[in-house]
Amino acid sequence: MDAAAPPPEKQSKENLVGTNAKGFSVCGWFLISLAFLLVLVTFPVSIWMCLKIVKEYERAVVFRLGRIQTRKAKGPGLILVLPCTDVFVRVDLRTVTCNIPPQEILTRDSVTTQVDGVVYYRIHSAISAVANVTDVHQATFLLAQTTLRNVLGTQTLSQILAGREDIARNIQAMLRDATEAWGILVARVEIKDVRIPVQLQRSMAAEAEATREARARVVAAEGEMNASQALRSASVVLCQSPVALQLRFLQTLNSVAAEKNSTIVFPLPLNMLDGLSRHRPEAV
Questions:
Q1: Which residue among 55, 70, 84, 100 has its CA within the 20 to 30 Å range from the CA of 7?
Q2: What's the pTM value of the predicted model, to 2 decimals?
Q3: Which whole-number Å values give the CA distances from 81 to 9, 176, 250, 277, in the listed order?
Q4: Hey, which residues does 21 pair with through a beta bridge?
């Protein structure tokens, strides 16, 4: 290995943004001077071709003889572009919505599911977005697809269904680290829908229904137990207080009389029946 060669990290950083500190050669300065002279000779016709309008949400990256003119993108407003030597690229800084189509994913517990999502990002460095990647939007879209599959492939189905927000934050952090060199700022990641097989949906629905029925039976049993305890307490009170029993009897008669009944049955105490049986003459 050559000891004079710079480290790989330094090489990658130098090759990312092509803003070189070196100036133009003599031939380059001659061509630039010739372009300025051409603008002056053909003025004012040439000025309409050289002046470009950059909108508020745009920035312009100007290449002069193949080099980025300044370390900062130009705009918004009017910029001057020399003919034959300058080429400029418009970059939109507005937030972009990237829809991730449904991805077929095999979860960690061997369940095949389809998950789709959406990524919100914007370009914060126009020079990096132009100089460091061929198509920044296509690269971000493909990276979002790959990251979504890789992250969800390490989760179980229950973790995916219950932890969408945490998974989205993890994907956002991974995308931020990967797209920082491209001048991209990932603002938000959302998982829209998780589609599971129909057979699994039916089994989950049956399990949920069985759980609900079990809970309903438990609640009904608790209600019956409470009611029986209340009846037991009431019977104890009535047995200890004959007056209370008589009042309850009168209240029952009042409730029965309120209805339009043709027959009312009056229960008689058993002790009265015993007294009548004692006074009955015996058969000869």
A1: 70
A2: 0.65
A3: 35, 34, 106, 127
A4: none
Fill in the amino acid letter for 37.
L
Q: Are 59 and 74 in contact (CB under 8 A)?
A: yes
Strand ranges of the sheet holding 86-92, from the earlier edge strand across to the other edge: 67-68, 58-64, 86-92
Q: Which residue has the tokens 């943004």?
A: 17
Residue spans per domain, the chain = 26-89, 95-200
CB atoms within 10 A of CB 137: 15
Q: What is the DSSP string of 45-111?
A: HHHHHHEEEE-TTEEEEEEETTEES-SS-B-SEEEE--TTTEEEEEEE-S-EEEEEEEEEEE-TTS-
Strand partners of residue 60: 74, 90
Give the per-residue pLDDT at 244: 65
Greater pLDDT, 98 or 225: 98
In CATH, what is the architecture of 95-200?
Answer: 2-Layer Sandwich (3.30)
Token pair for 140: 């971000």
pLDDT tens figures, 148-159? 999 999 998 888
**Position 263: which residue type?**
T
Residue 276 gets which letter from DSSP? H
Q: pLDDT tens for residues 21-47? A: 467 788 878 888 888 888 888 888 888
Q: What's the token pair of residue 118?
A: 């959406």
According to DSSP, the residues that pair with 53 across neighbouring strands are 78
For the stretch 203-247, pLDDT in tens is: 667 777 777 777 877 877 787 788 777 777 777 766 766 666 666
Please enumerate in sequence order all residues whose Cβ is within 8 A of that of 104, keeping only pairs 6 or more positions apart, or say none. Answer: 112, 113, 114
Place of tokens 């390490």: 154
